[in-house]
Every structure is written in C-alpha cells, then in structure tokens.
Design goal:
It is a multi-pass membrane protein. One of its GO terms (cellular component) is ATP-binding cassette (ABC) transporter complex. It comes from Chlorobium phaeobacteroides (strain BS1). The chain is of the alpha+beta class. It is 62% helix and 19% strand. It has ten helices and six strands, in the order ααααββββββαααααα. Strands 1-2-3-4-5-6 form a six-stranded antiparallel sheet, with no helix packed on it. Strand 2 and strand 3 (171-181) form a beta hairpin. Helix 1 (2-42) runs antiparallel to helix 2 and helix 2 (46-82) crosses helix 9 (304-330).
C-alpha cells in the first residue's frame, strides 16, 4: 500500500498546485482588467503594479487553499472510483481510513505551509498592499485603537490618560496618571508631555504637577523639569497601535494582544479574531478532506465540472461563514475565539458525519 499511497499523494498534490495556480492567475487577471484604467489614469509605473499584484499572492493562496484542497480531493477520488481503482482497493481490504491517509498527509503539509504564510509571509505582503492602496486608491483603514483620549489601566491600580498620542515618535500630550488605594485616589500626576527614552529605558514626564492625597489633606509639588516613570506599557506596544492586525506576524500579533490585555486595553475583539484566523484558515485545507474524499468515493463516476462546482459552492459557504462570523466577533456579538474557529468546527462535524456514513 505504500506505493499506492505515494501515487495518490503525488496526484493529489499535483492537482492541488494546479488548482491553486489557476485560482491565483484568475484572480490577478480579473483584478488587472478591473483596475487597468485606474492604473493608466494615475500614471502608476509597471514596476509598482507588478509589486502590488505580487503582494496579493499570499492572501489569495490562503483564501483559496481550502477550495483547491477540496477540488483536488474530489477530483482524484472521483477518478479512482471512475477507473475502478477504488473498487480494487476495497477488494484488497483497504478501508476509507486507509484511503484518507495520503490525502491527509499532503494536506497537513499544505496547512503547515499556509500557517507559515499566514503568520509571516502574508503580513509582509499586506504591509506592501496597504501602502499601495493608501497611496493610489485613497483607501483608509480602521484604526485598532484611537490616538486620542486614551485611558490605560496600569499595574491594576493606576490609570494613565493620554490626551493625544504621536505613535511614530512615542510621545503623548496632556498626560495624567492616577494611583488608587482601593476605591480611593492616592495620588495624581499631571504632565504636559510624555516621551520614551531608549537609553534610560524609562518614560519621561515633562513639566509635572503631583498631588498626593491623604487623611491630612493634599500635598502639591510642581516640577518644571522632567521626571522618569516606569510603566508596564512598553514603547513598542504604543507604536504598534498604528499597525493593522494583518501586517503583524503571528508572534508580534500574540505579543500585541498580551501587552494590551496587561495594560488594560479594551475593544480587542477584532485583533483577537484576526489572530485566530491566522491559525484556523490554514487548517481548513485538512478539514475539507474529510468531506471531499468520502463524498467522491460514494459515486461511480464524477465529471470535472461537477467536482469544480461542488468545490466552489462548498468553498464559498466556508468563506462566507468565516467572514460573517468574524464580523460578529469584531462587534462583540460572538466570542472572538469562537468566531474564528466556528467555521472549522462546523465543517469538521459535517466531515466526520460524511466519513462515518461512507465507512459503513
């Protein structure tokens, strides 16, 4: 069976690659035809256009990989069934689980590549794509956090308020830092400006006014110079406020969420959904195998048009679910982790049910 497994794995991988290249090529051609007039009107150089479409390839591969995987599994299994090879395998005692092995082995490798793609390749490409669309298409992106009137929970008993923030230079204006002891305020520091000194590894408060509250009253101290301050919020964390989640590699994305939670940031649902999508979407290429192989193995013959139609229909259902549930997660209507993983879980349940039915 090892030789047969290699044969099936090779055929599945070849078909998957062909389908993937076809989808990427089709997308680029359609997009180029749609935008060609704009490119000419804006006088965009050919080199910039080539780089732009090069930056779209990782995302297109990631989105179409489940469809390509399903199409390849349907086509190869249908061809085995139509040529009576599948019947011969069953006669030799090969069950559905043995038929699935080469498909799953290759699909796991594909998913591993897509995790690398989603975690590292796509974020770099997304940064290039976003810059191009901002410059030439006047596209705007929703900030994951506002740069004005920030209120950050510091060390669980301090609240840092920043009137306005310059994310590039890590400076803020109109600063206040309130420290609490239980429900009572213990002290408050007001400053005109806050900046980060990389040499000292400290935050610097400029022109501070400090009030300390006690049972005996309030003491007031004015410092026209600078005070150093240690915060749990890092300079990198503030700078990352200007980065879109799609532009973060998976490790940077994880640290971003962890630091924001530690610093008391709220409204992280969108960022959390995006992070888990970078793991859930690549695994879909494996999950659809549980649907494609048993479904195609039940038919005597299957035409390419039927296989292609089933793949597109199923793929659009998956991507539609993924987009709809992600939006619900962004808006807090659904737990963000569940919103990212629910399409995979639903398709896994359907796949297991089809597998059990076909294995009887």
């Amino acid at each position: 069976m090892k030789l047969l497994d290699k044969y099936i794995a090779r055929q599945y991988f070849t078909t998957y690659v062909f389908a993937g290249i076809s989808f990427v090529s089709l997308f680029i051609v359609v997009s180029l035809i749609e935008n060609l007039g704009s490119f000419i009107d804006k006088g965009i150089e050919a080199e910039q256009i080539i780089l732009y479409y090069w930056s779209l390839i990782p995302e297109t591969i990631l989105l179409t990989s489940p469809i390509s995987s399903l199409l390849a599994s349907l086509y190869i299994t249908g061809r085995l069934s139509g040529s009576s090879e599948l019947t011969a395998m069953k006669t030799a005692g090969a069950g559905m689980h043995q038929l699935l092995k080469p498909f799953l082995a290759v699909a796991l490798l594909v998913s591993f590549f897509n995790i690398l793609n989603a975690g590292w390749l796509y974020p770099k490409a997304a940064a290039l794509k976003n810059r191009f669309e901002t410059q030439y298409f006047d596209k705007t992106f929703e900030n994951i956090s506002s740069s004005n009137n920030l209120h950050i929970l510091e060390s669980r008993n301090r609240i840092l308020s920043i009137g306005s923030l310059d994310q590039q230079n890590n400076t803020g204006l109109n600063i206040s830092l309130e420290t609490f002891e239980g429900p009572e305020i213990a002290s408050r520091i007001d400053a005109k400006k806050i900046s980060y000194d990389e040499t000292l590894d400290r935050w610097i408060l400029h022109e501070t006014r400090t009030r300390v509250f006690s049972q005996n009253g309030m003491s007031y101290t004015l410092n026209p110079g600078n005070d150093t301050l240690t915060l749990s919020l890092s300079a990198t964390s503030l700078r990352d406020l200007s980065i879109q989640p799609d532009e973060m590699d998976i490790m940077q994305h994880y640290r971003y969420i962890d630091e924001k939670r530690e610093a008391g940031f709220s409204n992280l649902d969108r960022v959390i959904v995006k992070f888990h999508n970078k793991l859930a979407l690549p695994l879909a290429s494996v999950i659809v195998i549980l649907t494609g192989v048993p479904l195609s193995a039940r038919k005597k013959r299957s035409g390419l048009a039927i296989e292609f139609g089933i793949s597109l229909f199923t793929g659009f259902i998956y991507l539609g679910l993924q987009r709809t549930l992600s939006t619900a997660g962004y808006r807090g209507l659904l737990d963000p982790v569940l919103a990212a993983w629910l399409p995979d879980l639903l398709f896994l349940a359907v796949g297991i049910a089809i597998y059990k039915t076909a294995n009887r």
